[in-house]
Structure formats: C-alpha cells, structure tokens
Design goal:
By secondary structure, this protein is an all-alpha fold. It contains 10 helices and no strands. α8 (about 145-165) runs antiparallel to α9.
C-alpha cells in the first residue's frame, strides 16, 4: 500500500517538472508563460525561444510521461502483462499528465500535456503510439499547424486501438477515448482561433512570390 501511494506521489512530481519554464528562465531569463500563447509547452517554447530550446523541453516532457507510467512496473505493483498492471500504469500516467497541466513546482500553471501524453502512451502501447505519431507528422506536413496535428493524432488513438490493436484492459479503451476528448478540450482556444483563421503555423508551407510594380 505504501509503495502504491509513493508511486502516485512520484508520478505527480515527475509530471510537475516544468521543463519549459525552468529551461526558459535558466538559459534565456524568460518565462514562456508570459509570451506567445502563454502556454508552458514545446510549441510555445519553439515560437518564443527557438528549436534549440524547444527540443530539450519536448524530450523531457516525453520522458517524464514515460517514466511515470513505468513506475508500477519498476515497483512490481502487479503481475507484468496483466490487466491490473496496465490499469495502474494508466492511472500513474494520468497523474503525471495532471501534474504537467497543474504543476505544483510552477504555481499550477503548466502546459496542455501533449508531449507528456505521448510519453504515457509510448510506455503503454509503443506501436500504437508510433502510428499516432505518424498521423501527427502527416497532418503537420499538410497544414503546418501543431494544434491540428495534435488533435488529429489524439482522435486517431482510440480509432486505431479499437480497430487494429488489442489490449487486455477495458480501462485502456476508456482511457483512449478520454485522451482524445481531453486533447480537444485543452485545445478549445486553438479551435476558436482556427475557426477565425487566426491560428499561427509552426511550419510555413511554401512562400508567396512578391511582384514589384
């Protein structure tokens, strides 16, 4: 019982590591939450501070989601490969995601959790996660917009799980639907900007030719 409580505390603290905030302040003396979209996530870090700062933030956010999700396995809380261990991993993963969105280490003002969700899913179902990442990349190349790519990958997750992949845990199927819905909810402001045609592109697709008169 004590190990289980410790695992959930560690999962939340891992999720609460505000990589975007700490790295921005340490190397640039900037709190990214006060610039750009105001979000403490990879996309805003790239917009405000560039790719060289954004990539480490991305990797840390993915790693903390993966590590938090693997804690029940590392602490041997249940039989490996069982539905119970999967359920526990889902719960610790969700705890880490909550930690990322509401980090105690950064005044409970975090990011949307996309990269951390990716880390959680990578620990739970690597092949399924890579497939969803493929959807993310394709949509990003077609649109240049990260929010559209993230939402597309999130919606693809339960679709792929129900139609192609298998899991011993019914909770995992419910979780996949909740992930898709949660990503849509956390991106509601982005959806509003998309509808108004105001959502910015991370990748510029093509260049307009300027003609001098």
């Amino acid at each position: 019982m004590l190990n289980t409580v410790l695992v959930f505390i560690l999962a939340y603290l891992l999720g609460s590591i505000p990589a975007a905030v700490w790295i921005g302040k340490l190397f640039h003396n900037i709190d990214v939450r006060q610039h750009g979209s105001g979000n403490a996530g990879t996309t805003n870090v790239i917009r405000v501070l560039g790719w060289k700062t954004g990539i480490p933030v991305l990797l840390i956010d993915i790693a903390k989601g993966w590590l938090a999700t693997m804690l029940p396995v590392f602490f041997n809380l249940a039989e490996p490969g069982s539905a119970l261990i999967t359920d526990l991993q889902i719960l610790t993963g969700v705890t880490a995601i909550i930690g990322h969105i509401f980090p105690v280490l950064a005044g409970f003002m975090g990011g949307k959790g996309v990269a951390t969700v990716f880390g959680v899913l990578l620990a739970l179902q690597p092949l399924l996660t890579i497939s969803c990442f493929g959807v993310f990349l394709v949509v990003l190349l077609l649109t240049g917009i990260v929010s559209v790519s993230s939402m597309s990958a999130g919606v693809a997750f339960p679709v792929f799980l129900f139609l192609i992949f298998e899991t011993p845990s019914p909770v995992f199927k419910i979780f996949s639907i909740l992930v898709a819905v949660a990503l849509l909810i956390t991106h509601r402001k982005n959806i509003g900007r998309l509808l108004r045609g105001e959502e910015s592109k991370l990748i510029k697709l093509g260049k307009k030719n300027k003609t001098s008169i």
